[in-house]
User: Fold this.
Amino acid sequence: MKRNPRWRTDRVIMMTLATVLAFPALAHNDHDHDHEHDHGHEHGLGAHVHGEAMMQLGIEGHRAEIILDTPAVNIIGFERPPRNEEEEAALESAVEYFRNEPLLEPGQEAERCQLENARVQSALLHEEGKAPDDGHAEFSVTQELSCTASLAEGGIRAVVLDAYPDIERLRLEWVSDDGQGASELTPAQPVFQAR
Assistant:
């Protein structure tokens, strides 16, 4: 049975809402900034903080849907339009990665996830190439995965932390057929259980 793409979008929205309602404290971020400028604005479910990212995960059987929101500086080292060929290449490489590599993998070697659909959004990708007025561009990545086994059955590794170690803290909210929860992942601790 082929599912309507709108069903997938509606399902992600519902899973996200369920998670936020179940964990309202996660929707607020009162952490201090450890860099020279004050952001004073909110994006997504929390403050725009360098070194931090937010991931939402919905698991249904062997399928998973992921939303990753992160400041662009965590991925490409800057948050404004590229100024030279090196920065253009960094931006293109990041977009290519997000469109072709799963952000998560099952913790067991024999199991794998295949990326079925991906969407990358950022003010840096707009035709006019303008970053937000505040100069703090972000990436919002949505992926749909099909896995050889349910991600809820074993450990899950956030391989995006291997690819982009400037994400020092990944706040994760997940919901599955078996429940919901939250985890905080780091490059040193990239594995979690969705049970």
Notes: The chain has a mean pLDDT of 80.
